[in-house]
Design goal:
Blueprint: H1 2-41, H2 45-73, H3 75-95, H4 99-127, H5 133-158, H6 165-171, H7 174-183, H8 191-196, H9 200-211, H10 213-228, H11 236-239, H12 245-260, H13 263-276, H14 281-305, H15 311-334, H16 342-355, H17 358-368, H18 375-404, H19 406-427, H20 436-446
Helix pairs in contact: 1-2, 1-3, 1-4, 1-5, 1-6, 1-7, 1-13, 2-3, 2-4, 2-18, 3-4, 3-6, 3-7, 4-5, 4-18, 5-6, 5-14, 5-17, 9-10, 12-17, 12-18, 12-19, 13-14, 13-18, 14-16, 15-16, 15-17, 15-19, 18-19
Length: 447
């Protein structure tokens, strides 16, 4: 029975994590289309930045909608709406002949990405047993990097498919979107949402399937106590209240620094970076496959370690690796040492360090630290911070790369890693092995 419960939770988490796969695919697929949509739509640097970052603008709106809709209609139905948006965006952007139409469908896809980026890890954290929560929430990040890798592989396979290659690169995302929608019919609703909305019997049955009868009752009672003692903290105003504000700062800081340390600038613009040092477009697209593969391997390593080593040690070690890699990248660009695979090597070490730390740990911590009744609202603020930082950074990165040079851009990212390292050492709590209700008591009382 214990093994069956284990696989039950794993299957549910995997279904929810398909939202992460689509999130990764949709955000990364644009990288392979850049060399082709730029001449097709006759884009300058700002136009190219808008083509890439428009999806991120949609993400911000999607996260805002996700917080409210997930409280009203549940996590499951909100994730199903994200799946529909993914399919519509894939078909629409792939068929677009006008740049404005292209942007509209990219923004629509951004709604789906925003919803999935917030609700997939939150749903998993709310349904997973405490002892395995870090690993199960990290499945979502694993799905994100698999989505990124699939996007890179898909782009590489389609790059020589003719003048409509970029259309096929975008349209293929409709298939996993349909799979995500269909799979969600087999997933239960979050037991914590069910308790909050008066469906206690359903919540008990789901908790029993996850934990067994004895532990299920203990967890059910803890959820009820948490919700009953926090009735007054159900608004956005309370998210910014004095007891919660320090926790919110941690969430926002992790969210913003997951972006301004440079990961998506490299993911989205990898072909542009490689072309800037003289590589052909097709070769540059192929090199991104290596980046995606490296990302996948080290995400798997982080999933193995996160509930054994803990969140904080992984984050410290990975941030140091990211900072060192970025410094060497900056030096390579400054000294114009482009021979061989030097740039690729340092990009791979940077991506490995990120995937093994912030990639898994950041969202795991964000999904754990907030009180039950404020989780959706608090996470919506944190995830909006992710996409706002990402939107601004991706919009201006082509200008940074072309006018200021790679050395300056990567040096700024290295400085951000230093700030992240200091914040992690002095402010980030360790959440390993504690239930969400235990964390609520510890963090709110401590702060």
């Amino acid at each position: 029975m214990k093994a069956s419960r284990k696989y039950y939770v794993l299957i549910i988490s995997t279904i929810a994590a398909l939202g992460g796969l689509l999130y990764g695919f949709d955000t990364a697929v644009i990288s392979g289309t850049i060399p082709f949509i730029r001449p097709y739509f006759d884009l300058n640097d700002i136009g190219l930045g808008w083509a890439v970052s428009s999806l991120l603008g949609g993400c911000i709106l999607g996260v805002v909608l996700a917080g409210k809709s997930s409280d009203l209609f549940g996590r499951k139905k909100s994730l199903m709406s994200a799946a529909v948006l993914f399919v519509l965006s894939a078909v629409g952007s792939g068929l677009a002949h006008n740049f404005s139409v292209f942007i509209c469908f990219r923004i629509l896809g951004g709604f789906g990405v925003g919803i999935a980026s917030m609700l997939s890890p939150m749903y998993i954290s709310e349904i997973a047993p405490a002892a395995r929560r870090g690993r199960l929430v990290s499945i979502n990040q694993l799905a994100v990097v698999i989505g990124i890798l699939l996007a890179f592989i898909s782009n590489a396979l389609l790059v020589d498919s003719g003048e409509n290659n970029w259309r096929w690169m975008l349209a293929v995302m409709g298939l996993p979107g349909l799979l995500f929608f269909a799979s969600l019919f087999f997933a239960p609703e979050s037991p914590r949402w069910l308790v909050q909305n008066g469906f206690s019997d359903k919540a008990k049955r789901i908790l029993e399937n996850v934990n067994g009868s004895e532990i299920a009752m203990e967890e059910f009672n803890a959820i009820e106590e948490s919700i009953n003692t926090a009735q007054y903290m159900g608004t956005y105003r309370e998210v910014f209240s004095k007891p919660i504000r320090p926790i919110l700062i941690i969430g926002i800081f992790l969210a913003v620094f997951s972006q301004i340390t440079g990961i998506n600038s490299i993911m989205y613009y990898a072909p542009v970076i490689f072309q800037s040092i003289g590589n052909a477009a097709s070769s540059a697209v192929l090199q991104t496959v290596l980046i995606g593969g490296c990302n996948l391997v080290f995400t798997l390593l982080a999933i193995i370690l996160i509930d054994k080593v803990g969140r904080k040690p992984l984050l410290i070690a990975g941030t140091i690796g990211m900072m060192i890699s970025l410094i060497f990248l900056a030096l390579a660009f400054f000294l114009k040492k482009y021979d061989g695979y030097l740039i690729l090597f340092f990009i791979l070490t940077y991506c490995a360090s990120f995937a093994g730390s912030m990639g898994c740990v950041g969202m795991a911590i964000i999904s754990e630290i907030f009180p039950n009744r404020l989780r959706s609202k608090s996470m919506s603020i944190a995830v909006v911070s992710v996409w706002l930082a990402n939107f601004i950074l991706i919009l201006v990165f082509p200008v940074m790369l072309n006018r200021l040079g790679g050395a300056f851009a990567f040096l700024i990212f290295a400085l951000m890693c230093l700030l992240l390292l200091l914040f992690t050492i002095f402010r980030i709590p360790e959440t390993k092995g504690k239930s969400l209700e235990e964390l609520e008591k510890i963090l709110v009382k401590r702060e």
